[in-house]
Amino acid sequence: METIVRRIGLVAHDAMKKDMIEWVLWNSERLIGHKFYCTGTTGTLIKKALEEKHPEIKWDITILKSGPLGGDQQIGSRIVEGEIDYLFFFTDPMTLQPHDTDVKALTRLAGVENIVFCCNRSTADHIITSPLFTDPTYERIHPDYTNYTQRFENKGIISEAVEQVKKRRNKSENNISK
């Protein structure tokens, strides 16, 4: 049977790190052979736990910066670049995060890129046990944003801007010469 390597982002708020580590250890046999991108502290703890449980396995884990220090944005960048297929982000619903805007941006990017995204253990359990997780023929649908990215074509916005600058420059030069 053909296997597939899923590229998985793992992120957890401080109050959820233990839950994330337990979830990863519980599902470690299912996670063998996949590629991981983790924010700093979460990744360091997960790597240590997995190496302790499975010392014979070489885990492919990329540890980024701590979430509030840019790690959330590094995860987001990898989502946009198509390097992450799944994002398991265990969020703490009871604590306001100082980097909440980064968290919202990461959530938004997961939606924009149509990747699998979950923010709690129950959803993660359902995702990892889904037949689609191990189905080598399953591919997510990549949204087509062509209309959005080309929304200014044939609108004359550049020529209008050039003309506006010329008018301002002429007006400024006329005021200076007076």
From TrEMBL:
GO terms for cellular component: cytosol. Keywords: Lyase. CDD domains: MGS. It comes from the Bacteria. It catalyses: dihydroxyacetone phosphate = methylglyoxal + phosphate. SUPFAM superfamilies: Methylglyoxal synthase-like. InterPro entries: Methylgl_synth (IPR004363), Methylglyoxal_synth_AS (IPR018148), MGS-like_dom (IPR011607), MGS-like_dom_sf (IPR036914). SMART domains: MGS. The active site is at D72. Substrate binds at H13, K17, T39, G40, T41, T42, S66, G67, H99. GO terms for molecular function: methylglyoxal synthase activity. Residues 1-178 form the MGS-like domain. Its EC number is 4.2.3.3. GO terms for biological process: methylglyoxal biosynthetic process. HAMAP family: Methylglyoxal_synth. Belongs to the methylglyoxal synthase family. Catalyzes the formation of methylglyoxal from dihydroxyacetone phosphate. This is Methylglyoxal synthase. It comes from Bacteroides eggerthii.
